[in-house]
Amino acid sequence: MIGGSDLAGASGSRGVRVVSRALAIVLLLSVAAACARRTAPVTPPATPAYPQFPFPAVTDDLARTAGTLTTDHQRAWSLLQTGRADQAARDFERVLSRESTFYPAATGLGFSELAQKQADAALEHFDRALGHAPAYAPALLGRAETLLMLQRDGDALAAYEAALSADPGLTNVRQRIEVIRFRAVQADVAAAEQARQRGELPRARAYYQRAITASPESGFLYRDLAQVERELGELDRALAHVERAIALDPSDAVSYQVLGQLREQQGKRDAALAAYREAASLDPTLDVAPRIEALEARTEVERLPAAYQTIPGAVAIGRGDLAAMFGIRLAPVIERASQSSVLLTDTRRHWAESWILGVAQSGIMDVYGNHTFQPEARLTRGELATAASRVLALIGTSRPALAASWDRARQSFADMESSHLLYAEASRAVAAGIMRVREDGTFAPAETVSGSEAVAAVERLAQLAEEAGLTVNHE
To answer: How far is CA 259 from the centre of its chain?
Structure first.
């Protein structure tokens, strides 16, 4: 027979066991519920919030030891692509708290920070991932995007190139690389031009060299570098660079212009002419015609008789010398004069025969009554004034107002009255700036003319002719 107290004890023990089992079941259910809430799947969005961010894939080797980290990593990425970057960041941090070397999650955390415009924090996470996997393409790409946000274009370019090297399938990265390169080149070119304008040629050269490093196939960079080096006096380096520019872009007229300038500085006239002519053929609007004309005229002058070359340094020149200067320098102007037949008996063997005949036929210079020109006779200031006055009359047909002002000017000479036979010619020549009065106030019409004086007079006539719109020959 069992007593009451025994029954009570047995009943109490069974009650305790029942309650304990119930509590255990409740606890298990609570834990299961909590786990279910933490690992609830996130449906990937139909349209990713950040399609430019590549998924930080878990490699096969890493997946074998990652366990549930891979699933949690994928869930955090889905959160990010639904636009919940802050929640995604917390989930990536939880993954990393369980395994700090799980670099795909560090990369995902970097993208989460980048989505929130937290560039410094994002860079730290990408660098952390790359510390474990230096060639991990998603982290390299994320680092490049972050550096670009930080306006560190040079570092961004290197990171993009590293990402492309790690994963050649990142085709859109190629375009970004080209854009960055273009921006970098633009910035360097602008800086180079500003430095050149300030006269800081070595600095300008450094900018162009850096631009060439970024864009080695851009011909215009070599051309502009060549111009800087030409100004620095480094002709050989400049020549090498402009030739490289032409090799890269044979249609660039400015490169040929620079080549012409360099060849001209080297004294290689034929090569300079060839370069200038090529520049003109490629771009008729390019301002190279004056250089072509000048070089052609210089070439023509060098083909002239040796006697012509000695005129500028002569103490006194002859009548034939002035005729040659007029005929060579002012031929288009003199041809405007009426031509008449003349008979000359003493110029057949003179080196300036053809030019003497031209100025004689135009009436610019007089023939003596015995049909002689006397080319070796010393030229006087009076004769120069007479010939210059006649050329001024030809120029005046295009500028009548200017010609009238020369005629109205009544110059005062200590040795010539207004009634003098040569006064009008002398006054006109002085008024037009062709000749000067002597220091003592005389004109001295009977004095001889030096070579330098004659050259100055002819050059002034040529200048006035050009200002009147007339063509002249350039030496």
So the answer is: 15
Q: What percent of the chain stands above pLDDT 90?
A: 73
Residue-range domains of the chain with CATH: 67-169 (1.25.40.10), 217-303 (1.25.40.10), 312-467 (no CATH)
* pLDDT confidence bin for 41, thresholds 50/70/90: low
- Residue listed under structure tokens 């031509």: 339
Is the CB of residue 229 less than 8 Å from the CB of residue 238? yes
- Tell me how crowded residue 13 is: count the other CB atoms within 10 A of its CB: 10
- Say how far apart CA 407 and CA 234 lie, in whole Å: 53
Confidence check: pLDDT of 7 > 70 = no
Q: CA torsion, points 262, 268, 271, 275, in degrees to nearest 10?
A: 30
Q: Number of H helices and number of E strands within the chain? A: 23, 0
E strand or H helix at 464 = helix 451-467
Do 470 and 333 touch, CB atoms closer than 8 A? Answer: yes
Whether the pTM exceeds 0.85: the reply is no
Q: What is the DSSP string of 245-313?
A: HHHH-TT-HHHHHHHHHHHHHTT-HHHHHHHHHHHHHH-TTSTTHHHHHHHHHHHHHHTS-HHHHTGGG
